[in-house]
Specification:
Residues 325-681 form the Glycoside hydrolase family 65 central catalytic domain. By secondary structure, the protein is of the alpha+beta class. It contains 18 helices and 32 strands. Helix 4 (361-373) packs parallel to helix 8 (430-445) and helix 10 (498-514) packs parallel to helix 14.
Length: 758
């Protein structure tokens, strides 16, 4: 059952209703960020009803203790989590001594919108007080021009009566995580200064930890600029973890005032603690000098450039149009390649679930999209992120007594920081996704410089891990991989997960292929012997893959077909989603699949399988899949489109495009599913438009969904910008920038140097 809070609009997420019963969902859907920091859609004036107040800062985290009663050798020492950071939007507000709180204060004409053109959040309403009505509006954005800056503007207009307004503009670090133990605090104060005539600041640091993880410090600065007909009274006060400037002024009937709150944040990731106050003040001078209008104009320009490259235009279906743009704006608010030390957490800056860390989602789902819609350096940064953490991957493997590099399932610094054994040390398939991302970047961009240098180190490390993790079955005469969890996390500790085995051998194949072209210096450093290469080739030649000849399918793992195999449609509707109704034991024993598993491997290596193999596996596995991972629908949509199952492809596109907007899985209240949001773009471009890139060949096989009039998108491919437009008459390709190129349209080679029609 879905739930839709916002009206349909191609460029706005908007509503005239305050979702008092679904405030957390509304807060998630109106979260904003700029890659450096972000926050949920909380109210500046506060809200006493149910709410999840959250502000998060890129790369700032805490190593929480992870020990459990029955400790296993190899467990990580800590569980990394992105911690709720100092709150800088708080502006408690009273009018005529009445606290403004939409959970209690009478109001009308409520309106809330997230403008996807420029990532600006707007809210307005009229409060009804005795003999007085005041219209209030709030606008805020995280600056993309000055990444350390946020801007909040409050406008108050007295419609009736007289209003004495008081605002307590705050920097407040008295915050905690919802998932913390017993209201545990993660912040300690270092310095504070409240100033009623200039800039106030608050400096805090994460509490000590017993691990080799640095403490993070932050300095937040604020300046409040008031434009009001009557002079304001300004005072300042402070207390532990809080600085506050109080502003009080009077508005007569018909008068209006504007309060602009400028905030800057600098962290120890960039500035030493003892230099942060000075750095914050310097930034503040820059920001205030620019002013609200100039910062907003710069914001508009940056976002227009992003949309010029990435927008997908859909005619005839505003529901689909809103969905794809919402996903794009949220992705770009989370990450746009500005910092190679950062990555994309499953919840981004929108919530605390999944610890805010990096998962395999980035390589599997973000890289394929970002290659086409951002400058190449953005994906290059994501690859450098993994390379820079290679030593941590070697550490993770050593913890298990294995050779090579095991990249973490969950991390901030390259060291595994997740404490669930079945995920952390059995879901080793993530190594394959990281290797595959290197291949995707290399083949799509044509740039071999990364793989020939840094990438080959990553590949060899992963190859050595696989070569040690497999074992040879003398009985079968085959190599096997036991004790794993595949992408389908509704099965744990299985033997010979087809996807894991397949990606392991693919990685060995690709590494052997790329070794001859690696830099001489890297070859000397890596010392891959002929004997080692021969061993890798033997694993490739004799790997075991579970298959069923009668069904004509690749079997998910050795015992999957021994289950009570039945379609997900047999699950009573009132028991869906099963992860919110069934015990974990019941889920593990069931045949139901959380997300693409065998089909994930077919998607990754899509050119290596016949149409018959794809169809038989899709027809078998998709009906068993409950799609309770946000990562699932897009893969199925792409394969359904290739197989000509257009209705199924469109159905699954709708699920991935509006997973959060319509709350498909009833789990968006604690944050958006950021890393799955690329799935809507993939479903359109790789699915509906049939885009493939393989062996220096770019091809398209588009179809038009039944209820769409047309759709169009652009891709950035090897220094070219190509626009693809599909309507009932066919497909039009335009080379907007770059040298002529031969592409394949419906299997026909076409020289693309001007507009081409089919």
């Amino acid at each position: 059952m879905t739930k839709r809070l916002f009206d349909i609009d191609p460029w706005l997420i908007r509503t005239h209703k305050l979702a008092t019963d679904d405030m957390r969902l509304q807060e998630s859907l109106t979260a904003i960020g700029n890659g450096y920091m972000g926050l949920r859609g909380n109210f500046e004036e506060g809200y006493s009803g149910d709410s999840l107040r959250g502000t998060y800062y890129g790369g700032v985290w805490f190593p929480d203790k992870t020990r459990v009663g029955w400790w296993k050798i190899g467990y990580p020492e800590y569980f990394g989590k992105a911690i709720n950071g100092p709150d800088f939007i708080s502006m408690p507000l009273t009018i005529n001594n009445v606290p403004i709180d939409l959970a209690q204060t009478p109001y009308h004409d409520f309106y809330l919108s997230l403008d996807m053109h420029n990532a600006v959040l707007h809210r307005e309403f009229v409060v009804d007080l005795p003999d007085t009505q005041v219209q209030l509006s709030f606008d805020r954005f995280m600056s993309n021009d000055v990444k350390q800056a946020a801007v909040i503007r409050m406008t108050a207009t007295t419609l009736q009566g007289n209003a004495d307004i008081r605002v307590e503009s705050q920097l407040n670090s008295n915050v905690h995580n919802e998932d913390s133990n017993y209201e545990e605090m993660f912040w300690e104060e270092l310095d504070r200064h409240a100033d009623s005539n200039g800039t106030s600041h608050l400096t805090v640091i994460t509490k000590p930890n017993p691990y080799d993880v640095p403490r993070f410090s932050l300095t937040l600065s604020m300046t409040n600029v008031l434009a009001s007909p009557a002079p304001a009274t300004r005072t300042a006060e402070d207390s532990s973890l809080l600085v506050q400037e109080d502003l009080a002024w009077h508005l007569a009937e018909g008068e209006s005032s504007t309060l602009t709150k400028y905030v800057t944040v600098v962290t120890s990731r960039d500035v030493p603690t003892d230099q942060q106050v000075a750095a914050g003040e310097e930034l503040m001078q820059q920001v205030v000098k620019k002013g609200y209008d100039a910062l907003l104009a710069a914001q508009n320009k940056i976002w227009q450039e992003r949309w010029n490259m990435a927008d997908v235009v859909i005619a005839g279906d505003d529901v689909a149009q809103q969905g794809i743009r919402f996903n794009l704006v949220q992705l770009f608010m989370t990450y746009y390649g500005d910092d190679a030390r950062l990555n994309i957490g499953p919840k981004g800056f929108t919530g605390e679930k999944y610890g805010g860390a990096t998962y395999w989602d980035t390589e599997a789902y973000i890289v394929p999209m970002y290659l086409s819609v951002t400058p190449p350096k953005v994906v290059r940064q994501l690859l450098e992120y993994r390379y820079n953490q290679l030593s941590g991957a070697y550490h993770n493997a050593q913890q298990q007594g294995l050779k090579g590099a095991l990249f973490p399932m969950v991390t901030f610094n390259g060291i595994e920081s997740h404490n669930e054994w079945e995920i952390t040390f059995e879901e080793i398939h993530r190594n394959g996704a990281i290797a595959h991302a290197i291949a995707q970047y290399t083949e799509y961009t044509g740039d071999h410089s990364y793989v020939d240098d840094h990438g080959i180190e990553v590949l060899v490390g992963i190859a050595r891990f696989w070569a040690d993790r497999v074992h040879f079955s003398k009985r079968q005469g085959k190599y096997m991989i036991h004790g794993v969890t595949g992408p389908n996390e509704y099965e744990n500790n299985v033997n010979n997960n087809w996807y894991t085995n397949t990606m392991a051998t693919w990685t060995l194949r690709y590494t052997l292929k790329m070794l001859p072209e690696a830099k001489t210096s890297q070859l000397a450093k890596l010392q891959v012997s002929d004997e080692e290469k021969a061993h890798w080739q033997d694993i490739i030649d004799r790997m075991y893959y579970p298959e069923d000849e009668k069904l004509g399918i690749f079997v998910q793992n050795d015992t999957f077909l021994d289950k009570d195999v039945r379609p997900a449609s047999s699950i009573p509707a009132d028991q869906r989603p099963i992860n919110q109704h069934w015990s974990w034991d019941r889920i593990l024993r069931s045949p139901f699949i959380k997300q693409a598993d065998v089909l994930q491997g077919i998607y990754f290596l899509i050119d290596e399988f016949t149409m018959q193999q794809k169809e038989r596996n899709f027809d078998f596995y998709e009906p068993l899949t409950v799609h309770e991972s946000s990562l699932s629908p897009s893969i199925h949509a792409i394969l359904a489109a290739e197989l000509g199952k257009e209705d199924k492809a469109v159905e699954l596109y709708q699920r991935t495009a509006r997973l959060d907007l319509d709350n498909y899985n009833n789990d968006t209240d604690d944050g958006l599913h950021i890393t799955s949001m690329s799935g809507s773009w993939l479903a359109i471009v790789q699915g509906f438009a049939g885009m493939r890139q393989h062996a220096d060949k770019l091809s398209f096989k588009p179809f038009l969904p039944k209820n769409w009039e047309k759709y169009a998108f652009a891709i950035n491919y090897r220094d070219r910008i190509i626009r693809v437009s599909v309507n009932a008459a066919g497909c039009t390709l335009q080379l907007l920038k770059g040298a002529p190129l031969t592409v394949w349209l419906y299997d026909k080679p076409t020289e693309l140097s001007a507009t081409v029609h089919e």
